[in-house]
Design goal:
By secondary structure, the protein is α/β, with parallel strands linked by helices. It has helices at about 20-30, 50-60, 75-90, 110-120, 140-155, 175-180, 195-205, 225-245, 245-270, 275-300, 310-335, 345-365; strands at about 5-15, 40-45, 65-70, 95-100, 125, 170-175, 210. The protein folds into two domains: about 5-240, Alpha-Beta Complex (Spore Coat Polysaccharide Biosynthesis Protein SpsA, Chain A); about 245-370, no CATH class. The protein starts with 6 loop residues before the first strand and ends in a 9-residue tail after the last helix. It binds guanosine-5'-diphosphate-alpha-D-mannose and manganese (II) ion.
């Protein structure tokens, strides 16, 4: 055990968590009994209409280590930033936790995450996607895919490959790491904060450790994750990628030229009277070909590949085929699901998954740099 107890602040953001917060505070206090660290709870409430803050104020009379911060609702990320600043500046915390109020994160897991800090980690993630970690069995396909997709976007688009659960909201972080991070530069308000902070920590060479946890579905109240959060999440991942990779910037520029080729050819072919289901794959294939030449001669020009030109060509064709399939199936799917929209929109939507698959397979396979390590 540590010689010096660490001042640890569990930050719990709340929005309408009246039915959870009291039980959570009790459960945390019970865990604190077995810890030798100096444990505190900081509830960051955004004027919850259900009166969560009143419950916390009442609890404060019997829990001297419980603090409350009030604010306007601007999103989960804004709440966490406010909480972390307060924990660092006012409370002089050594360690902060991120934790949900809804019992999705088990209070019993707090000691395990803190133990990893004791063992030298800077940034400990309560992870659902390492062996031993789980997501709720009752989660439907949509939530499973949503969570998986979020992690794929974070790992492969934002570039946090080494972490399995990038979106986890249960984490223990040394404030020595947080003090090196400029929160203003994170540019996030909602749930995208989790990925933005993780990326910033990784950039600052924090020692990141994942500890398996079982994520429990909430029984009281409801999730606050909205469409706005999903959009910000994806934009943020693109931003991180854009900001940290010149290669990817070039790839995006090439991709944009491909969009022009794709939509232009599609429109021309439609004007020629061609059936839209035939025009779509032809237009896609044309843009893939122009993309290849630009990527080969410009984007990945600096890469030292182990393959000869011929092998690269074959690989590129294989990737193209997959992209074409992805793009075309998106087109067909949307044409069937949303027939009231113009076919150009369906065609455009097909570009997104195809571009991503194209980039990653070509970057890490076709044009793989011989000393390339994913980082
Ligand atoms: N103060 C404040 N302001 N709190 C908020 C806000 C907000 O705008 N939005 C959400 N919260 C609080 C909730 O009250 C809850 O305590 C916690 O943040 C998590 O919110 P949920 O709405 O329960 O999130 P979730 O279950 O959908 O998402 C969880 O899993 C995600 C990954 O799958 C969270 O752990 C996320 O952080 C995580 O990214
Ligand atoms: Mn939840």
């Amino acid at each position: 055990m540590n010689a010096k107890p660490l001042k640890t602040v569990i930050i719990v953001p709340t929005y309408n968590e009246k039915s959870n917060i009291a039980a959570l505070v009790d459960a945390l206090q019970e865990q604190f009994l077995q810890l030798e660290h100096d444990m505190h709870i900081l509830v960051v409430d955004d004027n919850s209409p259900d009166g969560t803050a009143d419950v916390v104020r009442t609890l404060q009379t019997s829990h001297p280590n419980l603090q409350l911060l009030n604010g306007q609702k601007q999103g989960l990320g804004v709440a966490y930033i406010r909480g972390m600043r307060h924990a660092m500046q006012e409370l002089q915390a050594d360690v902060v936790f991120e934790m949900d109020a809804d019992f999705s994160h088990k209070p019993e897991d707090v000691p395990r995450l803190l133990a990893a800090i004791d063992e030298g980690a800077d940034f400990v993630i309560g992870s659902r996607y390492v062996p031993g970690g789980t997501i709720p069995e009752e989660w439907g396909l949509y939530r499973r895919l949503n969570s998986r997709f979020g992690n794929i976007v974070a790992r492969y688009l934002a570039g946090i490959y080494s972490v399995r659960d990038c979106t986890a909201g249960f984490r223990a972080i040394r404030t020595s790491v947080l003090r090196r991070i400029d929160f203003d530069k994170l540019r996030v308000q909602g749930y995208a904060f989790q990925v933005a902070l993780l990326h910033a920590a990784k950039t600052n060479k924090a020692k990141i450790v994942e500890i398996p946890v079982n994520f429990i579905d909430r029984t009281h109240g409801e999730s606050k994750l909205g469409l706005r959060d999903i959009i910000e999440f994806i934009l943020n991942a693109w931003w991180i990628r854009f900001d940290s990779s010149k290669t990817f910037i070039k790839f995006l520029i090439v991709g944009a030229s491909g969009v022009v080729v794709n939509l232009g050819a599609f429109t021309l072919l439609l004007a020629q009277g061609l059936n839209k289901y035939a025009a779509s794959p032809i237009a896609i294939e044309l843009s893939i070909i122009t993309n290849f030449f630009l990527n080969n001669g410009w984007t990945f020009r600096w890469r030292k590949t182990k393959d000869r030109m011929r092998t690269r060509g074959i690989k590129f064709n294989a990737v193209s085929l997959l992209s074409l399939g992805l793009s075309y199936s998106t087109f067909v799917l949307l044409s069937v699901l949303l027939p009231e929209y113009p076919p150009q929109l369906h065609q455009f939507a097909g570009i997104v998954p195809a571009t991503l698959a194209n980039y990653f397979l070509n970057s890490y396979w076709t044009f793989k740099h011989v000393e390339d390590t994913p980082s």
